[in-house]
Each structure stands twice: as C-alpha cells, then as structure tokens.
Sequence to fold (600 residues):
Amino acid sequence: METFEKINVSGNRNKGKINSIKDNARRRSKSSFLSDYFLVITFTFAVFLLVWSHRFHHHDGLSTNHLEMKRIKESFISTSSTGKTTNKTRKIASTATNQHDHRLAGLKCDQWGGPSFDAAQEMVYWEDIPSDQNYLSPFHLKAATDGASELRIGQFLTFEPDGGGWNNIRMSMETLLAIAFNMGRTLVLPPHQKMYLLSKEEKKQRSEFSFEHFFHMQSISQEHIGFNVINMDEFLQLFLDGRFKHPGTGKPVFPPNNRTDWNSVAGPEKNILKDWLRESSKVLQWLPDDCMASFPRSNTAEAMEELENLEEAIFKEGIPNYEDYVGKPVPVDSSAKERLKENLAGRKKLCFYDTELQREPWIHFPVSHQGQYKARMLVHFYAFLFFADWKADLWTKRFVRDHVRYVDEIQCAAARVVHAIRTKHDSNFDTMHVRRGDFQYKNTRVSIDKIYTAISKHIHKNSTIYIATDERDKSFFAPLKKHYNILYLDDFLEDLGGINTNFYGMVDQLIASRGRTFFGCWFSTFTGYINRLRGYHADDHQTPGYEDGIIPSYYYTLEDRYDHMREFWPVKRAFYAREFPTSWRLIDTGVEEDIARPAT
Fold:
C-alpha cells in the first residue's frame, strides 16, 4: 500500500528541490543609494497627499498604502527613460515588498496560538521561488508603451462570485485570478457580501466576506510584480472624474448612484451594482465547456497567428479523445500542439485574448444561470487556460500553488489539530470526506455499509480515521467505530481556539489533506480541493508515482471512479467533478535550484 508517511518537514522537505536555507535565498535586485533615497522621498510625499486628500477609504485586507505603492510603481515604469522595464519593475517591487511585514513563504503560527514552527511546517506545500516573483505576462504593462493616457486609466478585470458553495466560489475565483494575471490586468475584488453557507453570526463574528478574508491577496500583490489587486470601492473611486468611457456610447461612466461603497448590500440593492458592472464594461462570456481561454507566447501579431494556425491544424486532424491519454501523460514541456491535444477535453474552439480585447480598459465576467448573461466559471483554472508557452503554463500553476493558499489563521488552526492527532491519537492517520447535507447528486448518498466496504480495502482495522463531513447526525458513522478510531473536527474545539466558525470547512480540508490514505466523494469540489492539496504535497515529497501525478486517494462513491486518483487522467468534462494531476504534476520543471525556504 503506497501511502503518505509522516515526514520530518523541519529538515529537508524535498531532496530534489531544496538545497539550503541561506541568506542568499532572497535574490532580489538592489537599488543604488540615490534610487532608494528618491523612492523614500516619493513615497513619503505620496502618503502625505493621500492623507491630505482623503480620497480613498481604508478597508480591512486591502490598504490604501498598497494602492498608492502600485501607483508609484507604475509612475516609475512610465517615466524612466533608461534601462530595461523589467529591471526597473523589479527594483520598485522589491521596495514595495519591504513595506509589508507578512511573508507568504513558510508558516509561522506564534500569533495564532501555535503550533510550534516545526509542527506548522507539515501544512506547507507551497514553495518560495524568487525568480517566479519577477515573471510578467506578455500583456502586462501594455499601457506603458501605448501612451500615458492609457496608463492613467489602467486595465482592469471585474467579476461576479459564483452563487454556489464555498469551493465553487473559490474555484471560479482562482480561474478569474489566473485570467487577470495573464491578461496583465488589475483584479478587482467584489464587495464584502454574504456567501452561501458562510453566514454564521455567532459571537458577533464576521459573516460577510470578500476573498481577502480567505487568501493573502495584499501579500500576493505586494510580493509579485505582475499581480495587482484592488477592492471594488477603490475601483469605483476611479470613475468619479469621468475618465472611463462607456464601450458602446463613448460617454463618461460614473459609479452607480455616484456611490463607491457597496459592502454588505443585499437583495435588489445588490443588483444595482451588478447591473451597472454588466452595462458599463466589455462583458466576456467565455464558456469553459465550449472553449479554452488561450494566450499566445508573446504580445505580437505573429504569435497570435501561430496560435490561430495551431487551432486550425488540430481541428483539421480531428479532436483526440481524452481516453487516449489515460495513464499516458505528455511531458509538461511538450510542444503547444501536444499539450493542447491532451487538454482539449472535446472542446471545439479556442477563445483568444486578441488585440481587440487587449485594448479594452475594463473587462467583466458575469455569472448567471439564465438570460442574456448566462455563464458560469465552474471550471479549474488549469482546465480552462491554455498557453502556447509551456513555461507560462507551469508558472501559472505554481503561482496558484505558492500564493493562492488559505490565510495563516486557517492554516495554523489546521496545523494545531493535525499536531494533536499525531501526538495524542496516532502518528499516522487516515482521512475521509463524507458529503451528505444538501448535495444535489443523490447517487452519492450511499449507506455506511457501502462506505465501509470501500474503505476497508485500503484502511486497516483499528486505524485512526479523521472524517471531514457536513453530516450533523454522527450516529450515521457508528458502524465504523466498530473497526476504527473515528475523529471529527468537533473533537478538537479547544485546539481551534476562537477561529471564525465560518472557516471550519477550510480547516477540515487542510486536515484531511494530511491523511496517509484519503477517501472522498465524486462530484464534490470539497473533496476535489483536498486531492489537489495532496497532489501538491506528493509532488513536493516525490512520493511513489509522483511523476504521473498519482496520489494515495480513492472515492467511496461512485463505484466506477473508485481508483481514478491512482492513475493519470487528463482533464475532462465535467471539470468540477474532480481535480486533475496536471495541476500539480511536475510543475517545478524548469525552476532548477531556485527554491528556498526561510530560516526559523
């Protein structure tokens, strides 16, 4: 039985990738004394103007200092006349990063009530790759070469959150975040709002959210030169002077009702902003079941023509069947043609980010189940985006792995529980996710006897099993207690401390990802994300089968999908039903020895 064993993560986490923890792990470009002095003067002056004007309002999670630093960065890029743009950008990004005291690399839980540094590292699957922080999309900073007027306006991407449960919301957000980065656009986060099943208000805790409450959005933006993010209030502030023009009429567009703060609105009032976003922008309705969002290797007419010719050639030859690739993945650095054939999943066209779209200052992605704006990004980012350049493909997968991870508070809560299980119950434990509740796929609601039959093939009797579940009646699992030591999140309330109870589902996922063997539910995006996290850990530690993306996970239902995670499967419809090895398999290819981890 191939399993995850407990690994001493405080030592060498990855024999093939991590060589040292040295002072030179941070290879950042250095500025001259005069450049640094000039930056300090400029930053101080900008902050003074900001305070004096009170133009922008502070919101928790995304500070005005952050927005101001991005403006300073952009002004340097546009006004300096010597040297390469990327070098100038790196210097400025390094300065902005130094203003922020939170680092995405590693995990320290001192301020969150533990556990120890060594115990916390078990949760860490993300890497710190300095060279990745300097990557720019070919379409980034287009305005800097097209004219100062466009620079002042900038380019933005807005979107509507998915209306389903948290993991559908997260999945859609990841996809749109990846699209925004590769379009070179600033991502605009939706206002704080109620999210389905995340509205518990006990003890006056937060029950309205945007994505900065779950992910370190500000840290991602400040640490990475190619990713900018602002909140909706900051975005709408830009419309007050009429600089944006309606894409149809060419007339100035102002905020709806001249209002910029749309946090906490609901019902018909919420629709006012939604309708305005749709009516005032260039709406994109790229449907994941119909096409792949495709990006050429460079921002040139020749590169776009290459991609168009590739599409034509493949469809002339005939669309391959995804089953042709089961157990036979193509190399991650294969030609664009071979990679596209593996990932098409029966789709018959590409959606191009062409020259016309590049000129649009503002693109909006709607979400609706019906009507004119019928669209839904119910797809994993890696199953929807295609890159002619394999390095851009792997970089995007690393970007999501290394940056778009749950905030430290959630990670540390999970680390405390995992540490408690290992020290108080069993150093090697197994995990399950049993989906019950309001799940629409009724054929997944199987009896406890069928669940036992499924798991008993790979989980030995008397083993400790941690079960993540939405089943409130725990007597459902009573038959399993005859064979196993069963644990739930409820058994570790003291270890959870005062964490927001709306975060319990995320904590459950992280704990379940650390099991030796895992059983989950087909169709569940909750199970799917657990498997992706397990894939990241497997690739990191190079466990048996990692070259093909194989992990020690199974499905207790559906029966014919029981061991699909034990073999390479390419992406296929329905994309949301599971996660696929292409998202974690060998994604550090080409990075060489540029992975580092901070000292304790």
Notes: Residues 1-100, 142-152 have pLDDT under 50 and may be disordered. The first helix runs from residue 33 to 53.
